[in-house]
Amino acid sequence: MGVTNKLGEMGVVTLRLEEAVNWARTNAMWPMLFGLACCAIEMMSTQASNYDMSRFGMELMRPSPRQSDLMIVAGRVSRKMAPVLRRLYDQMPDPKWVLSMGDCASCGGVFNNYAIVQGVDEIVPVDVYVAGCPPRPEQLMHGIITLHERIKQNRLADWA
Amino acid sequence: MNLIRGFATTIKHVFEEPVTIQFPEEERPVRERFKGRHALKRYDNGLEKCIGCSLCAAACPADAIWVEAAENSDEARYSPGERYARTYEINMIRCIFCGYCEDACPTEAIVLEHEYRLSFNDRVDAVYTKDMLIDPVPPGGQDTPQVTEPGKFTRSIPEMKDPD
Amino acid sequence: MTDTVTITIDGQDFEVPKGMNLVDAAKLHGIGIPVFCYHPKLDPVGMCRMCLVELGNVAIDRTTGAPELDEQGNPVIRWFPKLQTACTQTVSQGMVLRTTSDMVVEGRENILEFLLTSHPLDCPVCDKGGECPLQNLTMAYGPGESRFIYDDKIRLAKHVPLGKLIYLDRERCIQCARCTRFCDEIVGDDVLAFHERGRRLQIVTISDPPFDTKFSGNTTDICPVGALTTTDFRFGARPWELTEVSTICPYCPVGCNLNASTRMDREFGGKAMIKRIMPRQNERVNEIWICDKGRFGHHHSRHEERLLAPLMRNKSGELVEVEWPAVYKAIAKQLKAHGDQAGFVGDSTLSNEDLWELRRLAELSGGSPRLGLWPATMSGGDVVAQVGVGSETRLQDLGPGSVILVMASDFEEEAPIWWLQVKQAADRGAKVVVANARPTKLDRYASAVIHYRYDEAVGVLNSFTAPLLSGDGQLGQGNGWGALQSDLQNAEVTHADTANLLASAENLVIFLGSEGLTLEQHAELMQAAANLLIVSGHVGRPNNGLIPVWPGANVQGAWDMGFSAEATADLLANPPALWVIGGADVAGEDIRMATALEQAEFVVVTAQFMTPTAAHADIVLPRQSFAERAGTYTNGLRRVQRFYPAQGPIGDALPDWKIFAHVSAQMGGPRPPVAAGTIFRDIAQRVERYIGMDYTRLAWFEPQFPDVGGDDLYYGGTAYSNYGGLGLQWPAEAEAEQPQFSVRPVRTAAPQTDGLTLVPVWVLFDRGHLFEKSELMHHRMPQPYAAFNPDDAARLGLTDGDRVTLAVEGHELTVTAQVGDDNPAGAVLLPRRLSGDATLSTPAACTVQKIESMQKVEG
User: Fold this and answer.
1) CATH value of C150-302 in 3.30.70.20, 3.40.50.800, 3.40.50.150, 3.40.50.410
2) Which residues does chain A have within 8 Å of residue B92's beta carbon, measured at their own beta carbons?
């Protein structure tokens, strides 16, 4: 880690650029609302006052892909939905992340059949998989923290 | 009048204690019967309860469990009886935490516990192997494989009497 | 009198064949009567009492002998006062059964409650759990609770090895005696028995070595509980996790239908792997039995010594790994240079598709293709095509009136399942004639045994034919009848009784091996057998004709694809510059081949392992085992049978046909076919005998009786139903509408020279390069030995256990001598594929030198 110092009383903080950028990215991450099934209910709950995702800078769910950084795929993705999901992902501005919430999004879960995409990583690159059927709000938040940890590992060289 | 009543409700809530739980610093306790991450149990002497019968895998609606069995001997004993699980894997992102495996287990070897922090950066990390699932050896017990005296642990299933 | 009777089961009338027992009769119409001890292939004993039914017969008026009628004019039914065992009762006209009445239900419940008094609750760890008749029947008919006291359960040994292949769990045994009866009735080996009585009744093995039979695995199939399980499958998987793949045994000419149960395995890289081999029912081939070689001989398919990549000799003469395209180019270059002097050898484990592509490659190479077959011990593919057994021959149909001649073959070692079927035919009343130079195990079931000197084989058959040649003959002119007649008119009739027996037989089947015969002698023997069959009229119909005991699984297919043993002999006599050898370990089995390969300019070998042959090669190509690919084998009854890929591929190994096709493409041939089925379509268009066959037709199946492997495992055991195809048999020429027969005189071989002849003989559990990889069978493989007649041994000063050196054609081999009365004089019997060293595949003169034990004399 770089040198991070708080200089006296002056309220000045010095740190490396990549850390500043990572900090900014993690703490103002706007998730895209992509509720597909039961997991979406838990996702809503995570957003509501009991768990309050705003504490992580996720102020509100954006249904618009052009204004969001994080796609939370909450629920099973049918083959019919897959192109839509990919299109929305493509419309999101970089940098962007995908969190696969729950079993169905992660690997098809119990729906091992022709209609369901067996893992959303078949169509978009997934950064974090969250187990659970559906995951508790805490589990989703743990997933988001895992994602934050991952983003904090980003290096300037990887940005390109 | 209605307007005032509405704002009164709002103002009342402003002075209330916030309901937000400060996860991860603060955690809401889970219920006793909450089903989280699995654990493979041991007997007091350290032998594994799991006998590798694959009934959990058969009961699993999501095909999340993979068991490969092998044979015990008195020189290298993992569990009572003839059979033990050589490979025991649970894919956490396939598991739906329904607890059917717990119900199916004839030796009460697999138990769903309360851990729920299960997020992974990679699909492969989500496959929990036997080493990760099995409980630590209880005090006074011995790690497996054990050398045991012949003829002592001949039965896989613990003796269970009919209820009176 | 008709052949059927009408019986009433649960109020419904059914027509059933006469003489059938009630369990079979009900089963025929889809009504299941639960059984434990009864098995459709065994005689009923009525031990388990599970098949209890209410039974009534038509009352007969004793004065008139006519059925009594009631007021409505219906026959009066007289019910047995107690429940009857259905398996021991045969059907009779008007019989009435109740299989679902309260009395029957209660009877079954009580029987199960008794059976379960001491049965352990082992189902989770039991290999049978999931396909267990006791489990299934308890769920279906058992009582929910037991009234017996748990503490009174009897405790017995749970882990008793019966030999090294089968484990016995004494607690699980329900004393149905299926295993002991299988050994006694079906096999005739006295190896299992009951010990003690009552509740203490136990299965014990009474042979030394324990459970000494070649068919021990079958007892685990018919065991209705998990008392008998194989060490091979022990805890390999649960039955419901297995994927079933149909396959064919690659070892002997019987062509047993097998079922490979596969499952993905962590130790096999997550690929599907064969967990066990089980029989697949084919009443025309192996019924529901297989021998232990087929059952436990699958380990070569994933042995760690498997070749994984193509190997080519570099400049310094070492075999190094190369890429496939490079070897294709190198082989094509060599074939272009030496094409007209190339020799091609196909192994008996190669499928028809492999052999066909090898032939195509040979044709592309220029010159007249020299297509040799390995093992080259038997001649006469053309004779089989002429007088082979009729289509739809079923060995289990042979009974009273049939005669089976088994000649020049140690039958149990060469074709165990045929041996089993012939033995059962003898039990049913068929007459078995065994002719060989030495006693074999089949002799004890034979009506006549003829022992001859090895070189007299043809004479024995001629002496059977000679008495039949009186008169003009029915065959018309120009068929050699006259020539044969004049040739044999002075033949000595040495076995008149047997000759009569053969001539008067309703059905005659001849099994012909090649023990002690050179290739030329065997060709004569085949023709002599054809003469006998044609002259006595036993050809062209089912259950009549010739069955060659070929020395491998697909020898018949190799003949059909144009390969011949004569060509192999010719290749040896005039060795080619370039050898292309498919699959065979020629150098490991015949010293003459090894010498020929050493002198060759270039040798290409496809092999699964680094065999002695592969060690001679300039290019070694890794071939896939039968388990990894699709193909067809043609068995000794000329039945073309299909097998399917069961196991995940290993390394870069490819099926032989693909290798040969790629080389052909390099030589300017057509693009390689994509699948074995495409090649078979090609075969079906170009090979006359296979016209009309294709993979779809080979996969046909029909319901077979008895219905084994259906939902009711209790009835036939855990052998599998056949859903992979029963195969198609191509008709012999004798079955044509107007067959053209020709006989010709065969000379009796020249008298034996003095001195000893080395005679290669078969042992089932050999150390062939494939079977040797099944390590769990090593204890059944005998140590290398040479067997001597006592007189010869005395002359040479040998005693049992002496070390001797056999010198054959400039090659020396050291083995242990065995002296036994059964061994024929003038011959040294040397089991094939038993020693690590090469021997000979056909007989040859040899000299014997005793090795004096080296004793140091000091001081």
Assistant:
1) 3.30.70.20
2) 131
ipTM, 2 dp: 0.87
Distance of residue A107 Cα from the nearest chain B Cα, in angstroms: 6
Strands of the sheet with C160-162, listed across from one edge: C160-162, C166-168, C228-230
- H helix runs in C600-751, sequence order: 612-616, 656-666, 676-686, 695-698, 713-716
pLDDT at A2: 45
Do residues C548 and C635 lie in contact, with contact meaning Cβ atoms separated by under 8 Å?
Answer: no
The residues spanned by each domain of chain C are 4-115, 150-302, 311-378+555-689, 381-548, 756-850
The SS3 of residue B155 is coil
Q: CA angle, corner A98, sides to A92 and A102, nearest 5? A: 140
pLDDT score of A8: 61
What residues of chain A have any CB closer than 8 angstroms to a CB in chain B?
49-52, 55, 103, 106-107, 109-110, 112, 119, 121, 127-133, 135-139, 141-143, 145-146, 150
Q: Which of C125, C150, C236 sits opposite B156 (nearest CB)?
A: C125
CATH of range C311-378+555-689; options 3.30.450.40, 3.30.1830.10, 3.40.50.740, 3.40.50.2000: 3.40.50.740
Q: Taking every pair of C-alpha atoms in chain C, what is the biggest distance, in angstroms?
A: 111
Which ranges of chain B does DSSP label H, i.e. alpha helix? Answer: 2-14, 55-59, 100-104, 130-133
- Measure B70 CA to nearest chain C CA, in Å: 6
**Domain C756-850: assigned CATH number:** 2.40.40.20
**Statement: residue A19 has pLDDT above 90:** no
Residue C253 DSSP class = T
SS3 assignment, position C483: helix
A12: pLDDT strictly greater than 80:
no
pLDDT in tens, C303-347: 999 999 999 999 998 999 999 999 999 999 999 988 788 999 999
Answer yes or no: do B51 and C158 touch at CB < 8 A: no
* Residues of chain C under the 50 pLDDT cut: 856-859
Kindly report, residue by residue over A85-108, the tens digit of the pLDDT: 999 999 999 889 999 999 999 999
CATH of domain C4-115: 3.10.20.740
Distance CA(C590)–CA(C568), nearest Å, equals 12
- Spatial neighbors of C258 by CB under 8 A, at least 6 apart, are C246, C247, C248, C249, C277, C278, C279, C280, C290, C294
Q: How confident is the model at residue A1 (pLDDT cuts 50, 70, 90)?
A: very low
- What are the structural domain ranges in chain B? 29-133
Put simply, whether the predicted model's pTM sits higher than 0.90 gets the answer yes
- On whether the B29-133 domain is CATH 3.30.70.3270, my answer is yes
pLDDT, residue C853, reads: 66
Domain C381-548: CATH class, spelled out = alpha beta
Mapping DSSP to helix (H, G, I), strand (E, B) and coil, where does residue C497 land? helix
C-alpha pair distances (Å), C57 with each of A121, C28, C71:
71, 20, 18
Instruction: Enumerate domains of chain A plus CATH numbers.
Output: 19-152 (3.40.50.12280)
C265: how many CB neighbours lie within 10 A of its CB? 19
From chain B residues 60-89, the ones with a CB under 8 A of any chain C CB are 66, 68-71, 81-83, 87
Nearest by CB to A50, which of B21, B61, B95? B21
Q: What pLDDT sits at residue C405?
A: 95
Q: What is the pLDDT along chain B (164 residues), one digit of tens a residue?
A: 889 999 999 999 888 888 889 888 888 899 999 999 999 999 999 999 999 999 999 999 999 999 999 999 999 999 999 999 999 999 999 999 999 999 999 999 999 999 999 999 999 999 999 999 999 999 999 998 999 998 888 888 877 655 55
DSSP for B9-52? Answer: HHHHHHTSPP----TTTS-PPPPTT---SEEE-B-TTS-BS---
